[in-house]
Amino acid sequence: MIYWELFLAFFIPGIVGYGGGPASIPLIQTEVVNRYGWVTVEEFGELLAIGNALPGPIATKMAGYIGYEVGGVLGASVALFATIAPSLIIMIFLLGILYKFKDSPRVKRMTGLIKPTIAILLGVLAFEFFDTSVFSSGWAQTIFLIVISYLLLEKWKVHPALVIAGALLYGGLFLGHGAV
Amino acid sequence: MDIILQRDLFIAFFRSGILGYGGGPSTIPLVHKEVVERFGWMNDQEFADVLALGNALPGPIATKMAGYIGYKVGGWVGLINSLIATVLPTVLLMVGLIGLLSSFRESRVVAGMTAAVAPVVGVMLFVLTMQFLKQSKKGIGLAVTVVLSIVSLAAYQFLGIHPAIVIGILIVYGLTVRPRREKEGAAS
To answer: So where does this one cross the membrane (chain B) (predicted)?
Structure first.
């Protein structure tokens, strides 16, 4: 049955894909291209490129689109449910337990201890974004955009929506031509 | 059901989703901005817990954040509402505009637009990093923060150990080994 297959195809990458949506992309490819043959490798690459040009989480865009192509609106719903629900349910369950004991000294210390790791994780992620930018726009543009956006966001407290809109405009005007 | 609250939840997650270029992780600082700074639904500590657990579990991070925060703030309706706001707009864009978008894909203007957002997201993540380090210093002290940061960085970047494992070890350690204060309390 197609809906059951859709569920499995997106449930498995969701439940074994550590490192967020982008990490589950190769696993999704294995399922939808190799196992079920719903799309070809070329189509998958094309979808990924289009998905990456759009904002928002990538795993759900892939699940929503492929689910829709294979099984219509119901197919899209099943694929999205399989992507989102399993890890979310575990998360709600675990955080529920955590907050039940949030005044316990052990839980307090534990949540304190994981903070540096989370900070490092975000820091590494930040540098990955800088790295991507150096690769696509070069050093000069990257440093310029970092300095300008830091000043706008932190010094002049401009809303991120406006800064991102500004970056989109700047990129469309100045980075679209020379960049390889 | 609190209509105003549900509307705010929708706005918060719609904005985070539609502004996040570069997949789910790029929405983290945007969600922080909305949930902690703008609407004050959570403090930094709770947000850090959500991130820690979200990272320790598999699957997309953006929907785990949206689903959990939506649930905590607005119950089951809040959960569904926040998920819809995160997922649906971009899925609809993808399904509805696929023909148009595949011709755009070759466009250098679109590539340039997406490229320019990457450093902005990087800056926002970096600011959040510094915020968490500062709070950690306040909470567990400078020395422990520095040691744990170096250990995490080495494990993640140089030894290739997945952060989920580091977080898992810290959670187990934190919950099983008795805190010093509790020990003293039991002894006296």
So the answer is: 79-102, 109-128, 140-173
